[in-house]
Specification:
219 residues, mainly beta, 4-stranded antiparallel β-sheet
Length: 219
């Protein structure tokens, strides 16, 4: 029999790994922003702004200069009584936050870079783990009380009765171009809900542990 010499391939593989390692090592930290306490949520806004939420309930607004790699703190606001779990910009200058204090808040980001609370949404009996947009007017919030609530931002009221699960709801995902919302939480399954009828379509066992804030849609 013939012994094939793979020395060249092995050397090439080692060289490629070394080059990749060098590339990774060349990625240096460009900026570090100090906060008073642990950051629990962060999102980018449309107007070169970034907003963060921390474990003590503070929301901080930053202006971002990409060319100078500079962040300027514009405003820090006490937003909630407990850890802020998620943030997103529903439409230009409208910010929504959720918290373990069992509430959601809707904020206006003013032209002078201040934050004005518009409405506090109450009704959950447990901490709110995540809030996501469904449409331009409606949002969904998932809670430790094993429910998902659908809110109308214009009326600040619930659109439908609470959607109930048999697990604590940790994470939500609205599928792109589909009338479906995926729900994950305490347990090994995820649920699929129709966002037009708000009826549960099915549940799928997908993993061997709790589904935390890790739902993402692949292209």
């Amino acid at each position: 029999f013939t012994i094939k010499d793979n020395t060249a391939k092995i050397l090439k593989l080692l060289q490629d790994q070394q080059e990749q390692s060098t590339k990774i090592q060349s990625l240096n930290k460009t900026k570090e922003i100090q906060h008073n306490t642990d950051i629990s949520s962060i999102t980018e806004l449309n107007n070169l702004r970034v907003v963060t939420g921390d474990k003590d309930g503070y929301i901080t607004l930053f202006a971002v200069d990409d060319e100078k790699e500079q962040w300027t703190k514009l405003k820090e606001e006490k937003g909630h009584d407990s850890c802020i779990t998620s943030l997103f910009e529903l439409s230009r200058n409208i910010l929504v936050s959720s918290s373990f204090d069992k509430t959601l808040k809707v904020w206006n980001i003013n032209d002078d870079d201040t934050l004005t609370p518009i409405q506090t949404l109450e009704g959950h009996n447990g901490g709110v783990c995540q809030v996501i947009p469904l449409t331009n007017d409606t949002i969904a919030s998932g809670s430790l009380d094993c429910t998902i609530k659908i809110w109308n931002i214009n009326t600040c009221k619930e659109e439908v009765p609470p959607l109930t699960e048999d697990f604590r709801v940790y994470s939500l995902l609205k599928l792109k171009n589909k009338d479906q919302m995926v729900v994950g939480g305490q347990g090994t399954s995820v649920s699929f809900w129709n966002t037009k009828t708000f009826m549960k379509k099915k549940s799928v066992t997908c993993c061997g542990c709790d589904s935390l804030n890790g739902l993402i849609e692949l292209i």
